[in-house]
Amino acid sequence: MTFTSHMPLALDEARAAAARGEVPVGAVVVAPDGRVLAHAGNETRGRNDPTAHAELLAIRAACAALGQERLTGCALYVTLEPCAMCAAAIAASRIARLYYGAADPKSGGVAHGARVFAHPQAHHAPEVYDGIAAEAAAALLTEFFAARR
Ligand SMILES: [Zn+2]
User: Fold this and answer.
1) Helix (H), strand (E) at residue 26
2) Which of 27, 49, 90, 122 is least enclosed by beta carbons within 10 angstroms?
């Protein structure tokens, strides 16, 4: 099976989030057979829900699609380094591989801050691939915040 990056779809979700006035972050969950199970963008404002990060929405939708509480063997693509909350959800859902775009020194919880997967209390740590389409993901965020100032 050839490797297909689903980061372009995650970037589409990030752009759609920006168009809704949400912080532009997008996420995609892919099944072990390569099928896209769910994709989502940030919706914290639209849902009045501080936990409505793209990753959590995509994880919830993928679990619902499969009718199970875990995403064993699945991959998650997200345009920005997940925060600690989302990293904990990634561990709990047993996602096998995490591909993310831009680093997030301010709020990231994978390579920065809490470094959730580095702790023995993380019952599962995915393989992590960072820097995937990082420039495009970071540019969306920079443009979004520049426009709000
Ligand atoms: Zn998050």
Assistant:
1) strand 26-30
2) 49
How many angstroms is it from 1 CA to the middle of ligand 1? 30
pTM of the model: 0.95
Number of domains in the chain: 1
**Could you list the active site residues?**
55
> What average pLDDT values come out for the chain (149 residues) when binned by 10 residues?
85 98 98 97 98 98 98 98 98 98 97 96 95 96 91
Q: Distances in Å between the alpha carbon of 82 and those of 3, 56, 108?
A: 22, 10, 6
Please give the annotated binding residues for Zn(2+), written as ranges. 53, 83, 86
CATH of the domain at 99: 3.40.140.10
Domain interval for residue 19: 6-147
